Amino acid sequence: MQTPVHIFWFRRDLRFDDNYGLFRALSAGLPVVPVFIFDKEILDYLEDRDDRRLTFIHDTLTQLQGQLATRGSSLDIRYGKPLEVFAQLLSEYPVRAVFANHDYEPYAAARDGAVNALLLQQGASLITFKDQVIFEKDEVVKNDGLPYGVYTPYSKKWKLQLQPAHYQSFDSLGLMDNFYRQPERPVPALEAMGFTRHPDAFPGNVLNEAVVKLYHQQRDFPALPGTTQLGVHLRFGTVSIRRLVAQALQLNETFLGELIWREFFMQLLWHYPRLVHECHKREYEAIRWRNDEKEFEAWCEGRTGYPIVDAGMRELNATGFMHNRVRMVVASFLIKHLLIDWRLGEGYFARKLLDFDLSANNCNWQWVAGCGCDAAPYFRIFNPASQAKKFDGQDQYIKRWVPEYKTRDYVLPIVDHEFARKRCLAAYKEALQMKMTPQSANKLFAD
Fold first, then answer.
1. Cα distance between residue 325 and residue 317, in whole Å
2. pLDDT band for position 118 (cuts 50, 70, 90)
3. What span, in angstroms and rounded, lies between the C-alpha atoms of 153 and 311?
4. 259 annotated as belonging to a binding site for a ligand
5. Residue 158 is a catalytic residue
6. For the chain, where do the domains classified as CATH 1.10.579.10 start and end?
7. CATH homologous superfamily of domain 1-131?
8. For the segment 307-359, what is each residue's pLDDT rounded down to a tens digit?
9. 133-170+207-271 maps to which CATH number?
10. Catalytic one among 9, 158, 365, 401?
11. Where is this site: Electron transfer via tryptophanyl radical (predicted)?
């Protein structure tokens, strides 16, 4: 009879070091088979065959595989639908339990429920742990037990509850001899899954302390290297949030605040999974969007005639990254200058951003649109020219991405700012003053 094993299922935690779920699995007394699934349910939605994120994941798994090979073990990497893959794994290994870290997105919750049901049928179970956040679910809520809808009181309570035990590290790396011994397995080729490798390199996962110390002074200026570039590593868990919080407490309170924003948005989506498709403030569903296809295409390609908007979109298309300040400007322009539904912009960012995270992307777009939790007032409309003057006064960022700026080759503005501002205010005002029939209200406000 084969020796019983535990499985550790890697998802948004692609590291051996300070991985709490992995630490618990390796401490549980049975050999641990490390598993990763290239989820066909997710990959089928990717439009770009050379999606940068898939290359990042593939490279990371290859590195992890190399570390395991030196210890006589191997990742078991599969391609398929999770339920089908686990049916295969259960037929190949005598599995007592599957360990993993919590994932809070609606798809992940449904997937994990289905996998656990399958495991229970076979006398096993899915055991999950908190790893990608400091506080989760109902751990930071109002005194009445309801979730916070405003960031500032949430962040105050988050900080009030924080204790050193919340960001202590776990030596999962020191337990690697407890992995199941087996010959090295090949990492599935991208081509076998219908994809190709993207040639670009990725930012490293080491926190630049010099950048963080000046974060509060430089983070809004896109021409400066003033941000950490760690978004992709947080997204896929190649860095530990506990380590980052410990460093942020020592280095910069503003940077710590950004890590708290991440958790605020993540728990909002957990509490309100409908936000994936709906406005948090449902009255904003009544806005009559223009959704002009040619204007949306011009925005996507960086051809609006507004230099900071075009620079941001070209940076995104070329690198998979866009500076945070510029993200707000380009999102505001799409929604409020062009009156294009925020969901279209959110979807484009989801396709292109290397650091795409559903909760942050969705909630930030709703913030700009005015329809989300803790949202900017609908009448706050960024003036792209003012934003460029304030945060890129020497046009360094703009000229980097829009070399034809201030030449005859640069396109004319797609819309006049003052005209667009008035049109937006009128559209929002009309929606918010609309008197609905009981039938339309029931449809609009139903869960």
1. 17
2. very high
3. 35
4. yes
5. no
6. 276-445
7. HUPs (3.40.50.620)
8. 999 999 999 999 999 999 999 999 999 999 999 999 999 999 999 999 999 99
9. 1.25.40.80
10. 365
11. 289, 342, 365
